Amino acid sequence: MTQQPVRRTGGRNVAVYDPARQFEELHDQMGQLLNLAFGLPPGVQAQVEGPWIPAADVSESEDAYMVEIDVPGVHREDLDIQLNDRELTVAGEIVEKERAKLRRRTRKVGRFEFSGVLPGDVDADRVEAKLEHGVLTLTLPKAQAAKPKHIEVSR
Questions:
Q1: Does residue 104 sit in helix, strand or coil?
Q2: Does 96 share its domain with 60?
Q3: Does 6 score more than 60 pLDDT?
Q4: For the residues 70-83, what does the mean pLDDT come to?
Q5: If you average pLDDT over residues 34-50, what whole number do you get?
Q6: Residue 75's domain spans which residues?
Q7: Would you state the pLDDT for residue 36?
Q8: Do residues 17 and 53 both lie within one domain?
Q9: Dihedral of CA 52/55/60/65: which sign?
Q10: Do the domain assignments include residue 7?
Q11: Do 80 and 130 fall into the same domain?
Q12: pLDDT at site 105
């Protein structure tokens, strides 16, 4: 059963169906069911191979794209940010802390990777990255489009 977007009239907010987020939630629920089947307590996740995708928001202003990615516990030197044309990739790792006995886990640990293609060209020389309170904020200024130039016809 697919969930349809909720539409409201009168200029109110419109809830948007996010298939990627739904898939992530389904993946987490399946992991919890498998953990229960193999005797792990609820909330404890077995280590999964491969990177996971952190929560992120991508927005656009008149002159830039902004990307905010949740990376709690990551230090700036542990981030790898790559911009190849319009493709942005942010990778890193959240290291699990040493603990006596883990009873419940809802936060993800291990390697993560966010990637996406921006809708327009970016001025790579002016990109800024800031890490504050566990949120990586990237400001990617849009490339200046060439303005039309009027050309006079000579005699």
A1: coil
A2: yes
A3: no
A4: 93
A5: 59
A6: 48-141
A7: 66
A8: no
A9: negative
A10: no
A11: yes
A12: 75
Amino acid at 141: P
Say whether both 67 and 116 belong to one domain: yes
* Closest CA relative to residue 136, chosen from 56, 61, 60, 65: 56
- Are 60 and 112 in the same domain? yes
How large is the average pLDDT for residues 53-64? 93
Residue 25 inside a domain? The answer is yes
- 89-140 pLDDT tens trace: 999 998 887 878 877 777 888 899 999 999 999 999 999 999 999 999 999 9
Residue 115 included in any domain: yes
How buried is residue 88: exposed, middle or buried, by Cβ count under 10 Å (0-12/13-18/19+)? buried
Domain count, the chain: 2
Answer whether 92's CB lies under 8 Å from 78's CB: yes
Contacts of 42 (CB under 8 A, 6+ apart): 32, 35, 36, 104
Predicted pLDDT of residue 112: 93
Q: Which residue has the tokens 């603990």?
A: 99
Q: Is residue 81 part of a domain?
A: yes
